[in-house]
Structures are given as structure tokens and as C-alpha cells.
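Students often ask what a holo structure prediction actually looks like on paper. The answer is less mysterious than it sounds. You provide the chain, you provide the ligand, and the output is a string of C-alpha cells encoding the 3D arrangement of the protein together with NAP.
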Amino acid sequence: MNRRPLVNHTGSVLIFGATSAIATDVARRFASGGATLFLVGRSEEKLSALRDDLLVRGAARVETAVADLTEIESHERVVEAAKQALGTLDQVLVAYGVLGDQRASETSVETTLRDWQVNATSTIALLTLLANELERQRFGTLAVISSVAGDRGRQSNYVYGAAKAALSAFLSGLRARLSKAGVHVVTIKPGMVDTPMTAQMKKGPLFASPARVGQDIHQAMLRGRDVVYSPWYWRGVMLVIRLIPEPVFKRLPL
Ligand SMILES: NC(=O)c1ccc[n+]([C@@H]2O[C@H](COP(=O)([O-])OP(=O)(O)OC[C@H]3O[C@@H](n4cnc5c(N)ncnc54)[C@H](OP(=O)(O)O)[C@@H]3O)[C@@H](O)[C@H]2O)c1
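The corresponding C-alpha cells follow.
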């Protein structure tokens, strides 16, 4: 396990999907350390409430930008605004996503592709832009929330899982490329988290709080870790799930 010491708290932090429950927790942790933040989200109202909250918690400065990130043509404008506001991109977190409706996707190509556009295509487009910025800068951390769902496609959510699998594979290659420029790429793989995304799901003992996952992400970003399962026990759970032979796996109600 990588045990690099925590780096300075008080740099700049750029968050895409900042109003997500998990990202909000991470933003609060950086704010308490006195960081300057640039928040990107879809809702002006939610961003403004989050900005006020972060300033009270100790953020040095908080700027915001509204964007629907599936509109890929908006990415350049937002990244440029963030660079202008922050100067350098020290810590970047990409947190937006949708769980989608697996059953609806099974009968609708449009639904499948719409969710794929959020979780895979637009995220990969954004990461291509961010990667080049950080590579030019020659330092920084780029953390992205993928999911344990990407480790093996399950019949109950393989559309979401496939998009996260694409994202995880993309990040794996990107990490190797950017390491040569001194840039850390952190892949975050949460298990089930109690957030608005999972509001419709029945909660069991494997559900974690956004605070638990937010703490793991914050530490992983400061330490420049590679791949982080959150909470940690999901690494073991997914190892077992990956090892189940296909003839058995296809019969399991997973
Ligand atoms: N909850 C879980 O069990 C779980 C498990 C593994 C991974 N994850 C991942 O964790 C990340 C954060 O999710 P969460 O659990 O914190 O759920 P959440 O609170 O529902 O957050 C999802 C966020 O994505 C934003 N978003 C969705 N579509 C967008 C778009 N087109 N453009 C810009 N923003 C968009 C939403 O914006 P609005 O605020 O405007 O709606 C919201 O802030 C996601 O990538 C998710 O896939 C979650």
C-alpha cells in the first residue's frame, strides 16, 4: 500500500459534479484546510449554497461555474475559467455521474446511450482535456470517481458497470502516462454509498456514508494514491466476485 505523507492542504481544488453528496463531503474537508475551490455543477442554486457553506468552514475563496457536463463543448470554457480563477490546478476531482435505470436501458438504446454519455463519453472527453493541462503543468492530482460496479458486469446494473469499467481502464492508462510528468491519477472505486443516487435502493450493512467515502477520497488525493476501494473491504469483496467462474456467475442473482 502506498503510504506517502499527506501533502499541503491549502492548495487549489477543482471539482466537477461538486454538488454530489460524496464530492460535497470532499470539498468540505479541503475547505477546512483553507483551500481555494472552483466548483462545477448543473445547479446555480446548489452551487451557491455550497459556496456559502465552504466559506464558513474555512475555504480561502470559492468560485463556481454552471455546466451540464454532457455538453462536451462546455468543457474548454469551464477548464479555462478554473485556470483563470485558481492559477494552478493542484487537486482535481471528477465526481459527476448517474446510476441510470438498468431495466429501462434494456429496452431503450436512447436511455443506454444517454447514461453512457454521462458516465463514460463526456467524462473521458473532460479527462482528455484535464490530462493535457496537468501534463503541461507537470504536477497535480487528478482523482476520478469510478465504481466497484466496473470490476465485473452484473446483470442488475451492467450498463452503469460497463461505463465505469471503461472509465477505470482509461484511468489506468492515463495514470501510467501522466506519472512521467509528476501527475498523480487516482481511481476511486466506492461500493454502495447512501446518497441521492441510491435513494431508491433498500439500504443494507454494506452501505457506507458519504462522509466515510469522502474521507477516503480526501486522503487518497493528498497522498497521491493509485486505486482506492472505499470503504477498503470492497477490494476483497470484488476480488471474490471477479474469481467466480462464468458458468456460476451467470446463475447468481447479482
Ligand atoms: N452512491 C453510490 O452508491 C456510488 C457508488 C459508486 C460510485 N458512485 C459514484 O460517485 C459519484 C458521485 O455520486 P453520488 O453518490 O455522490 O451521487 P449524487 O449525490 O446523486 O451525485 C451525482 C452528481 O452528478 C451530477 N450530474 C449528473 N449528471 C450531470 C451532468 N450531465 N452534468 C453535470 N453534473 C451532473 C449531479 O448534479 P445535480 O446535483 O445537479 O443533480 C450530482 O451532483 C458518481 O460518479 C457515482 O457514479 C456512487
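DSSP finds nine helices and seven strands in the chain.
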